[in-house]
Each structure stands twice: as C-alpha cells, then as structure tokens.
Write a structure and sequence with these properties.
Blueprint lengths: L2 E8 L10 H4 L5 E8 L3 H17 L12 H19 L4 E11 L7 H23 L5 E4 L4 H7 L14 E4 H5 L18 E5 L4 E4 L11 E4 L6 H11 L6 E6 L5 H6 L3 E4 L22 H15 L6 H20 L7 H9 L6 H13 L10 H4 L5 H4 L4 E5 L7 H18 L12 E6 L8 H13 L5 E7 L3 H4 L7 H8 L3 E4 L7 H7 L3 H8 L3 E2 L3 E8 L6 E6 L3 H7 L3 H13 L5 H11 L12 H8 L1
Parallel strand pairs: 8-13, 8-14, 9-11, 9-12, 10-11, 12-13
Antiparallel strand pairs: 1-3, 1-4, 2-3, 3-5, 6-7, 6-17, 14-16, 15-16, 16-17
Helix pairs in contact: 2-3, 9-10, 9-15, 10-11, 11-12, 15-16, 16-18, 21-23
Length: 620
C-alpha cells in the first residue's frame, strides 16, 4: 500500500474556527493528524526570548546601525506578539504539529498497478497541497527523505518518542483552531427522517420537509444542465415514499417517466394532438359552489388568455372576476360545469354599466375565440375534463414539452395543472386520512413573468404548509424565479421568502444574482463554486435552510445501483435503459432496473463508446 505524508511547513496568516475545512472536504479518504503539546512555560518563554534576540541581531550591522531585513523584522513582530499574549493573558504556549497521511486506493501487486497507484497518489498529494494553500495562506510539504520516520512519528501513541522538528509554537487559542471539531448540520430531528444523505465531511444528514422545525415545506432546486438537479429531485421523491404522499409533477421532457412508471404512477404527455383535457372550471369534489380562490384562478387564466386589452389590468381583472362568478351561477343552476365558451357568452351578454365596460367585454370575448368553440386551443380548455385526468392519482406526471411551439399555451396549461394540483392539497383519502401532497414544477416558470398568474402561484406557496403540502420549484438558474437585477420578478422574490429549503447545485456563469437574493456569505459562494458531479459516483449540492449559515452544508448525494438506474437523467444512460426495456418486454420495470443495477452498479456515464455494446450484452 503506497502512502504519502504532507506536513504543515508554513503557518497561515491568521487562524479561525473553520480553518481545517479544506482538508476535511477532500473527495478521498485521508488521515489528519494534529499533535498538540503543552511544554514547560518558563523554558518556552526563555526560548522565545532567545529567538527575539536573534531576530534583533539579524537587523544590525557590525557597526551597530540597523539594516533592512524584512524576514527578521516579521519574526521579531510575531515573537513579540506571542510573548506579550503569553505573559499578559491566560493563554498558554503550545507546540502544534499537523500532518495529512494519504493512501492509494488499492494495494499494488504488480509493476503496472504500482505505476497507476503512484500516479493516483501524486494527484491526491497535489490536492492536499492545494487544500493547505486554501487555509488562509498556509503551506504544506510532501515528506520525501524523512518519509518513513515522519510517518512513524505521527502514528497514534508514538508522539514524543521520535523528534520530527515539524512543530510550531502558538498560543493555545490559535492552536485550538487546528483541532477539527466543527461538525456539519445534521438535519431535522423528527422521528421519520424521510430523506437521508451524506455530507461532504462524511456525516449523515436527515431531512423531513414537513418537520415542525421548519416554517414551511417548500423547496427550491436550481442548477445548470448536468449538475445533478433532476437526480436530486428524483432521489427526494423516491425516499419520501416513506411518507406515503400524493405526487404531481409538471415538467418539460421525459426525465421523470421511468421513475413515475416504476412507482406505478401515470405519465401524461400533453399536446394539441392528445386527448387529455383538464377543465379549469372544475370544482373540488367536496364543493358545491366556487370559493373566492377558484374564481380568482379562473379569472387570472382568462386574463392571460386575452392578453393586453389596453385597459387598466386591475379593472380588467375585476371585470373578469364578476363575469366568472355570473357564469358559475348561471351554469351551476342547471347542473352543469361551466367552460370558457360559457364565459364568452357571459361577456357578450353582460349587463354593461357604461360604454367603456361594454367595449372591454366585447374585446375580451373576441380575444377568447382562439380558446373556445373551434379555436386552435379550444380542445385543451373548452372541453369537459378527460376521464384520465378526472381520477385522483397517487403519482402523476404531466409532460408539457409538446406545447413548446406556443409559449402562451404552455404557460396556460402549466397554470391550469398547478391550480388543479393546489386543489388536491389538503384532501383526505377514502379512509379519512390526510396525506401529504408534493407538487414538483420543473422548468415551467414562465408563468411567474405574468404578474396575475404569478400572484396565484404565490398564494399556493403561502398556504401549502397549512394543508400538508410541499411545492418543489426547480429550474436551471435563479433568474428564472426572480428575474435579473434590472428586471426583477417581484412574485418570484416573494416565493423565495416562502421557500424554507434551497438545494443549490453547480451553477453556470457568475453568481452575483444568486448571492444577492439568497444572501449568501463569501464562504457559501465559494462552496457553490466548488460543487462537483461525478456521474455514477456522487452529485454535490449546497443545502441552505432558513437562510441560516449554521443550518447549511454541502451534501454528497449517492445512490444504490437500483436507485441510480431508477433516477439517472444522463442521456446515454436513459437511452440505454429505454432500449433495454424495449428489447426485454418480458421484464417488468422493476426487474429491468434491477438487472441494470446488478450489471452496471455505477452506470455507464464513464464508459467509452467502444465498450457500450459489451455493456449491453452484460446486462442482457
């Protein structure tokens, strides 16, 4: 087994409580050895005084005049400061030695294995030397000539037997900063952990979004493509099955399809060619008439459909709410559920108070033509709810990527589904039990740019916790929620205030906007910059809870081979998984995932192109 020892060769400019963090977050196992010895204080003071005299002598010429020697002057200052503190305060003088012992990952038995291990060891040593440099300017030294005696001297129980000459004299307060007693946040303390993962330091963190320690159960997940954002969300959903939740997902693309089908859920692709319709006018099963939230939701959607009318937005929205209420009263009286064509009829026959309102009513009715009757969008909004979407599903995913050619239509559908999901929060099951509802909105935040629709979404964030609900907001950049500094989304900023936990994956570009809106400290920004994602091994993200530094940490998300194949979003692996399922129709989704996990426990992301056929043959 090849080993290397790196010792502290130069002290940092100053010490602080988390000084040792760079050494503790290395992505390979290592041993940090800190020896602290309290010598005879009188003898140590005498030694320091002799050192002070030497430093003064170095700054004098033979004729007694002073000369410039910056190194000696710095030594004089440090020695005077140390002596002053030792004599005038309760601190004591201590000797500190610091070493990091590094090992290769495998025992070598052949020359080829040794060559490979030496290369790996040299890379790890370089990482340790860089970590020393991050400790406020400290420096490390790789032991070479004295490798074996130094390694032996740092073994447990051997300290003091062999002199290493690697010790530094410090005050006890400074020496304490070299003792790595800092422990990362360990998470919420509920009986049910719900989500369990490792921190970068190797400790376990447990997290339950419905913990009484949190003010709400909402989550924000943001990260660039390939950062592990979708992998994180799917791992959360997979582990949260212990809570027996209802889950509704709105997304663009097929990222969640394998997981949803594996868990027995329904996957619905929404497009103009599909026969899936959700009537936004539907009432809750336990409601006989619409409440104010339902009326406001339908009116907001009608406002979005109509677009700009030239009138004041508040006047238009107020007029639409009155028209929606009238439409409900007229249709419910004859036992029917309204549709947008009924709203159009109401607008055309509204008892107008004046010419301005009459003109507004006719203009709104005209603008609803595309969404009603035989209009191009009518089949998604002016029909009764499809039987497939009328049932309450434990797990359902809506893929609206098929509407990407029409952003306004995609936004309207996303809002309709969001409203329907919000209505499900707080509903009891057939046995009268209140189950948690988790709603995931991934990459569908164009509706926040519309202040009217955004206000409705904000209300869902504010009230979800009271009804045992959690909303996960996911996107590639924080700007999707809050806009830019020049053009902010006020609704998005308010949503962040109602989102207790933030999972920040690796980001793209500069982080000033992220830092400003989440009030991140400089160490937190640096932690985000250093986040890594190694496909098949781990994905890191920075977890910030309640905007408190003490409840933040870097988590290192790993997965069992089974979980990995159920949740991977890597294009190569998803294609491989889908092809394998098509070629082995005799296997259930569970059996296919299990077989892939057994054959390729770390996935295929690191496989070369030439051995993918061999990988497929192995799984088969």
């Amino acid at each position: 087994m090849l080993k290397a020892v790196v010792t502290l060769s130069e002290l940092p400019e100053a010490t602080f409580a988390s000084l040792m963090r760079p050494l503790m977050v290395l992505d390979f196992s290592s041993e940090i050895v800190v020896n602290v010895h309290v010598p005879n204080q009188a003898a140590k003071v005498r030694k320091l005084r002799r050192l002070l005299k030497k430093s003064l002598a170095f700054q004098l010429r033979k004729d007694g005049s002073r000369r410039r020697d910056f190194q000696a002057a710095a030594l004089e200052k440090d020695t005077v400061d140390t002596l002053t503190s030792a004599i005038t305060s309760s601190q004591r003088l201590v000797e500190v030695e610091l070493a990091v012992i590094i090992s290769a990952s495998k025992v070598t038995r052949t020359a080829a294995e040794r060559e490979k291990a030496e290369l790996e060891l040299s890379q790890r040593v370089e990482s340790v030397l860089q970590a020393f440099g991050q400790m406020n300017g400290a420096r490390g030294y790789r032991e070479d000539t004295a490798l074996l005696p130094t390694f032996t001297a740092f073994l447990p129980g051997v300290h003091g037997v062999r002199k290493t000459n690697r010790e530094f004299t410090l005050l006890s307060g400074q020496a304490a900063d070299f003792v790595p007693i800092e422990v990362p946040w360990i998470g919420t303390h509920d009986d049910t952990p719900a989500f369990l993962t490792r921190t970068r330091e190797g400790t376990l963190l447990r997290f339950n979004p419905f913990s009484t320690e949190l003010t709400n159960a909402n989550l924000l997940v943001t990260g660039k493509t390939g950062s592990g954002k979708s992998f994180l969300i799917k791992q959360l959903l997979l582990q949260w099955q212990v809570l027996n939740p209802r889950i509704a997902i709105v997304t663009k693309g097929a990222d969640y399809r394998a997981l949803v089908e594996l868990l027995g859920g329904q996957y619905r692709e929404i497009s103009l060619h599909a026969n899936f319709v959700k009537n936004p006018w539907d009432l809750r099963d336990d409601a006989r008439e619409p409440d104010s939230a339902q009326i406001a939701g339908v009116a907001s959607l009608a406002f979005h459909m109509a677009g700009k009318t030239g009138s004041d937005d508040a006047v238009t929205l107020n007029f639409l709410e009155k028209a929606v209420r009238m439409t409900y009263e007229r249709l419910l009286a004859i036992g029917k559920t309204p549709r947008f064509s009924d709203l159009k009829w109401t607008l055309e026959h509204y008892p107008f108070e004046n010419a301005v309102i009459e003109e507004l009513g006719h203009l709104l009715a005209l603008k609803l033509n595309r969404w009603t009757g035989e209009g191009v969008y009518a089949q998604l909004f002016d029909r009764d709810t499809s039987p497939e979407l009328a049932r309450t599903e434990d797990i359902i995913c809506y893929d609206i990527d098929g509407l990407k050619e029409s952003p306004e239509l995609q936004t309207a559908v996303a809002f309709t589904i969001a409203r329907a999901t919000d209505q499900q929060i707080g509903r009891k099951d057939a046995n009268g039990n209140l189950r948690p509802t988790i709603a995931v909105f991934d990459e569908v935040w164009a509706m926040l740019a519309d202040p009217v629709l955004g206000t409705q979404i904000l209300n869902a964030f504010r009230t979800a916790r009271k009804r045992y609900g959690s909303i996960i907001a996911a996107s590639q950049g924080i700007e999707d929620f809050v806009g830019t500094a020049e053009s902010p989304h006020t609704v998005g900023l308010a949503i962040l205030q109602n989102t207790e936990a933030k999972f920040i994956c690796a980001q793209l570009g500069e982080l000033s906007r992220l830092r400003d809106v989440l009030h991140l400290s400089e160490p937190a920004v640096e932690a985000v910059k250093e986040l890594r994602n190694v496909p098949g091994h781990f994905a890191e993200s920075y977890l910030l809870v309640a905007n408190q530094p003490e409840s933040s940490t870097v988590i290192q998300l790993t997965a069992t081979p089974f979980d990995y194949w159920a949740t991977t979003s890597h294009p190569l692996e998803t294609q491989f998984r889908d092809q394998f399922a098509r070629d082995h129709t005799e296997l259930s989704a569970l059996e296919a995932i299990y077989r892939l996990g057994v054959s390729h426990p770390q996935g295929l992301a690191s496989s070369s192109a030439r051995n993918r056929k061999e990988s497929y043959a192995t799984a088969s």
